[in-house]
Each structure stands twice: as C-alpha cells, then as structure tokens.
Amino acid sequence: MRYEPAFVTQVDGSECQYTSCWAAEGAMLTDAATGGSRTPTPTMFRRAARVPHCEPAGLGDIMRGMVHFGAWPRARYSNDLTRAELRALLVRRTGYVVGLSGDYEDWPEESVCQANFNDREDAYHGYVVICGSGTGERRGKVRVGNPLCQGWRWVDVDKVVQAAAIFAREQGQRDSIDCIVVIPPQER
C-alpha cells in the first residue's frame, strides 16, 4: 500500500483562497511525493512556485513548486493522454496520485462544494485523484481531492475524465490531456 496524502483545502482563510486550487493541488501532490515529510499549505506552495499575488496558475507552476520542495523525483509530467488512457490510469489500483486541471461545468453537484461554481461558463479548477476505483456502491468512482471541499469525495471516474477533457479542449488540445502523476512511497 502506498502513502496517501492528507487532503488540503484552498478555503483556508488566506487572501488568495479563491484562486489557489492549483496551490492546494500542488500541496497534496507534494505531500504524496514526499511520503508526508513535506506538507505545505497553499500559501507556502504559491510562494515556492513563485506565482505572483493571487494569480491563478497551472501544471507548470505546480511542477516548479514541487521541485522547490524536493518532491519532483517521485513525479512525472504526462502529456497527450487520451480519455481512455487517463481513465485506465485513474481506475488502476496503483495508489498513484494524479493532479489534473478540469472544467467543472458538468461536475456532479454534490461534490462541487461551492454553490453555483459549476454554473460558470469557464469553471476551471485543479484537483487531485488517488488512483484505484471503488467497490460496491462506489464502483466506477475514484477518490477526488477537490480543493473547494473539506475532504476527499468519491466521484464518477467518467465525470473526472470528462472535466479534464473539456478543459484540455478549451485550451486548444484535441484528445490530449495533461497531468502530473506522483508515485508515493510504499507505507511501512
């Protein structure tokens, strides 16, 4: 079994909390990559990534922050994944932790965690997935760290992939999804 990161919310009372989904995502990925030895807050992560005051950011900035914290050796940037490849990655019981950007316009209402967030035209958002699908009533779902929430949520894997695909398409990438994959250390 691999180390599982603690959930990190972006709603932390800081001045930049509503533009820090990517920083909370980076904090969770850093925690996963370092096996819990580095657990930055979104504010600390934003500073490490050198993103100016309350600016939104993306996967490249997350990579820079992870390098700063010494977390990159257990991570890799995966680009140009198809929807099928991303889905296969997410449902495999590896315990890997994947950072994604998505468009929440079609995200399940019960796991949005901020009223009307998914009603916006470009509801772009960063989130983290712990790979491995659920069983029983959670079959077909994966655990998602949505930084707008206060804990991990089970979300239909097809909705997770769809959000990433819509975001990629709206950024000019056709059938090409990018993500950060972290391979956490084994638990002792």
Short description:
The chain is of the alpha+beta class and 188 residues long. The protein has helices at 21-33, 42-49, 59-68, 83-91, 157-170, and strands at 75-81, 97-103, 124-130, 141-145, 153-156, 177-182.
Care to describe what's here?
With 188 residues, the protein is an alpha+beta fold. It has a single domain (17-182), classed as Cathepsin B, Chain A. It has five helices and six strands. A six-stranded antiparallel β-sheet has the order 1-6-2-3-4-5, sandwiched between helices. Strand 4 and strand 5 form a beta hairpin. It is globular.
Features:
single chain, 188 residues, alpha+beta, Cathepsin B, Chain A, six-stranded antiparallel sheet, 5 helices, 6 strands
The CATH homologous superfamily is called Cysteine proteinases
Distance, first to last CA: 9 Å
| Percent in helix | 25-40%
Biggest sheet descriptor = 6 strands, antiparallel
Low-confidence stretches: none
The percent range for strand residues is: 15-25%
Query: How are the strands of the largest sheet arranged?
Result: 1-6-2-3-4-5
| N-to-C series of helices and strands | HHHEHEEEEHE
Give the strand tally.
Answer: 6
